[in-house]
Amino acid sequence: FRLALIQLQVSSIKSENLTRACGLIREASKQGAQIVSLPECFNSPYGTKYFPEYAEKIPGDSTQKLSEVAKECSMYGPFLKRMLGDCITPVPCSGLTELCWRGTGRTAYCRVGLGICYDIRFAELAQIYAQRGCQLLVYPGAFNLTTGPAHWELLQRGRAVDNQVYVATASPARDEKASYVAWGHSTVVSPW
């Protein structure tokens, strides 16, 4: 199967972020992707001070639009609603269902373990996912310019090699003008 990691620049305008994300999901589908991951806080600026303004209920506008595009494209996609209590909502082509962000889900292609940015630092979580039969671990994240160069790739490779699973990380694109500058470098790491 083909996995797409969407690394988009996030602005302060939620509707534009959502429109951009949906367009990139459609483009990924046209290029053959069956599973897609958006970055952490893909629809809002990164930071707890923004959560009250950008939070929405599930279902809400973001989940509705992403569910529609997932159905349209016959695609699976975990996306992060961090401002709603750290929930990842996988959007299978059959509709919208919720999972705890420390959860697993089955696609037609493989079993997937879902975590967020900080979770990649904990080997035990990846071990549990591997023991539960996951072949792919997906971590939407937003490491910054300090932790990114030092830890981002190292942690991905560690989780992949130690557990013999693929690891995918999706980050916002780097925007030097943003209040929080993400490292970027969305990656898929092989266990070999």
CATH architecture: 4-Layer Sandwich
Largest sheet: 5 strands, mixed
Shape: globular
Average of the residue pLDDT scores: 86
CATH class: Alpha Beta
* Number of E-state strands: 10
Q: Report the β-strand fraction as a percent range.
A: 15-25%
Distance between the termini: 18 Å
* Rg over alpha carbons: 15 Å
Q: DSSP helix count?
A: 5
The helix-and-strand class reads: alpha/beta
The stretches of 5 or more residues where confidence is low (pLDDT under 50) are 79-101
Provide the number of structural domains: 1
Describe this structure in words.
The chain is globular and about 40 Å long. It is built from five helices and ten strands. The strands form three sheets. A five-stranded mixed beta sheet has the order 6-7-8-9-10, covered by helices on one side. The chain starts with a strand and ends with a strand. 41% of the residues are buried. The protein is 31% helix and 19% strand. It has 192 residues and is of the alpha/beta class. Its EC number is 3.5.1.3. It is an enzyme of class 3 (hydrolase). Residues 1-192 form the CN hydrolase domain. GO terms for molecular function: omega-amidase activity.
